[in-house]
Amino acid sequence: MKKRSRFNRKRRFDDDLSTEELMELSGRIRYAGNPEHKRNPGDFGLNPAFNPRPDKSLCDDVGIFNKADAEGLLKEGARLGLVSKNRRGEWPQNIWAVTSEGQPLEAQLENKEKGTYHGYPMPVSDRFAQAVLGRWRSDIDGTS
């Protein structure tokens, strides 16, 4: 698998949203998925990728096998404020979360009319993954 050597260095958390705004966002967003990030996309209601790219990270590799789990992580990331400052209309471009095993995830806005996202595990070579882990731990532990 080819490793990415460059990641978007402009990613930032949006720390200006209130708890109420984050709760409202969490209630409205949805997980749609992308078959390129699934080895077995059946539960997600997706067809297998026609021409899969071998460099894509797979949700299967971090234990995410169903849409409900993926959407739950997406909503929890939004609720905890792990949303990007960069916006597309009313939606954050990215939302981050961390699996129970400690794997950071990044979701990207897929449809700005519907507020749907697709997500994928963040590679360890992505420096922003450490920021996501730190923010998640402090929010989960209540030390923020």
What's the structural blueprint in terms of helices and strands?
Elements: H1 19-28, E1 30-31, H2 67-79, E2 87-88, E3 91-92, E4 94-98, E5 104-111, E6 116-121, H3 128-141
Parallel strand pairs: 1-6
Antiparallel strand pairs: 2-3, 4-5, 5-6
Helix pairs in contact: 1-2
Describe this structure in words.
The chain has one domain (19-141). 26% of the residues lie in helices and 17% in strands. It is built from 3 helices and 6 strands. It has helices at residues 19-28, 67-79, 128-141; strands at 30-31, 87-88, 91-92, 94-98, 104-111, 116-121. The strands form 2 sheets. A 4-stranded mixed β-sheet has the order 1-6-5-4. The protein has a two-stranded antiparallel ribbon with strand order 2-3. Strand 4 (94-98) and strand 5 (104-111) form a beta hairpin. Helix 1 packs antiparallel against helix 2. The radius of gyration is 14 Å and the shape is globular. The model is unreliable at 1-5 (pLDDT under 50).
Q: What fraction of residues sit in β-strands? A: 15-25%
Number of strand elements: 6
Q: Which sequence of strands runs across the widest sheet? A: 1-6-5-4
SSE order, as H and E? HEHEEEEEH
Largest β-sheet summary: 4 strands, mixed
Gyration radius from CA atoms, angstroms: 14 Å
Mean pLDDT: 83
Low-confidence stretches: 1-5
Structural class: alpha+beta
Distance between the termini: 37 Å
Work out the helix count. 3
Please indicate the count of domains: 1
Fraction of residues in helices? Answer: 25-40%
Oligomer category:
single chain
Query: Which outline best applies?
Result: globular
